[in-house]
Design brief:
single chain, alpha/beta, 8-stranded parallel beta sheet, globular
Length: 344
């Protein structure tokens, strides 16, 4: 017996995609952007990637406002940067409590409604590409949910709490877009590298009731996000020595497309969101002083929204994060332009 209630049977991804299809124009935009992004990870392009946006996508109007602003900046930096908006619609919760993202609560001030949530996230991701021409990123918190957005997303992150999970690793091995594997919360590089190895390999496994065989994903790569020690104290792993050490470990594995994205928030900043500016500048400095690091670091992950900081779920302030604190728009725009100026 199971101690749970089965509320209702949700529509399968195929049915949702048929009810809310994407246009041929969106398909063309995604195909072109996917190639442009893949070329960075394959070393065929010197462009730098910024996966940037709110900690969580809480409301459609503010998220779209933010992405439209981002699209204007993308045009200014298109020769050097590829901006991939974060539309994170699933949120891991350390204790299981709190706002779990738009897929659970399309309106964070109301109760959970997974059906409305699935529809809301598909509409938001579709609208973002359609209105701005920017393809977006989301976190794969639930591997079985990926298919609801698989025709729209161009970047997926596997979180620190999920990176050791077999289903996340094997599902990542069946995707054709870049999948960033974060170091686990304890910071062990070998766990992250094992995840990348698994994601780059072929597997037979169970997925959504099917026996599947994946082909392996050569675009699976590392994300450094800092870690927490046994006493619960945060430590960074973006410094020169951290990057050099990971590069040596990574290169010895014989993996394809050796690459890392540096997450400038989370444990790297100790959730002090203003530190993201300094952290990005320090990593760029390391890149200028070491050719291996320069080729290894492919971009940053930055938590950014319209207003600085964070608020409670019922705070009501437009464009201000209801989860982790984010860098406000003015500082974010200035940082994007500064990063572009510093790239060779």
């Amino acid at each position: 017996m199971m101690n749970m209630d089965f509320i209702r049977k949700l529509p399968i991804p195929k049915d949702v995609k048929e009810q809310f299809p994407i246009s041929e124009e969106i398909k063309k935009i995604k195909a072109a952007k996917d190639k442009e992004i893949a070329d960075v990870f394959k070393g065929r392009s010197d462009k730098f990637i910024l996966v940037i946006g709110p900690c969580s996508a809480d409301r459609e109007d503010a998220v779209m406002d933010y992405i439209c602003r981002l699209a204007k900046v993308q045009e200014q930096v298109k020769d050097k940067l590829i901006l991939i908006p974060r539309i994170y619609t699933n949120k891991p919760r350390t204790t299981g409590q709190g706002y779990k993202g738009m897929v659970h609560q399309p309106d964070p001030t109301k109760g959970e409604d997974m059906l409305e949530g699935i529809i809301a996230i598909r509409k938001l991701h579709t609208r973002a590409v359609n209105e701005t021409g920017l393809v977006c990123a989301d976190e794969m918190l639930y591997p079985e949910n990926h298919r609801y957005l698989s025709d729209i997303l161009s970047y997926v992150a596997i979180g620190a709490r999920s990176v050791e999970d077999q289903q996340h690793r094997l599902t990542a091995s069946g995707l054709e877009i870049p999948v960033g594997m974060k170091n686990p919360t304890g910071g062990d590089y070998s766990v992250m590298l094992n995840s990348i190895t698994a994601a780059q390999s072929s597997h037979t496994f169970l997925y959504r009731g099917w026996e599947c065989r994946s082909k392996g994903n050569p675009l699976a790569h590392a994300i450094l996000r800092g870690y927490v020690d046994r006493r619960g104290v945060s430590h960074p792993n973006y410094h020169y020595e951290d990057l050099a050490s990971l590069y040596e470990m990574y290169s010895s594995k014989g993996l394809e497309n050796v690459a890392v994205i540096v997450d400038s928030n989370h444990c790297n900043s100790g959730k002090q969101y203003l530190e993201q500016i300094r952290i990005c500048n320090e990593v760029l400095h390391s890149m200028r002083h070491n050719a291996d690091i320069n080729s290894f670091v492919k971009g940053f992950m930055i938590e950014s929204y319209i207003e600085d900081g964070a608020q409670k779920v019922d705070g009501g302030e437009y464009g201000k994060s209801i989860t982790d604190p984010c860098l406000g728009w003015e500082k974010s725009e200035k940082l994007i332009l500064s990063i572009a100026d510093q790239l060779r």
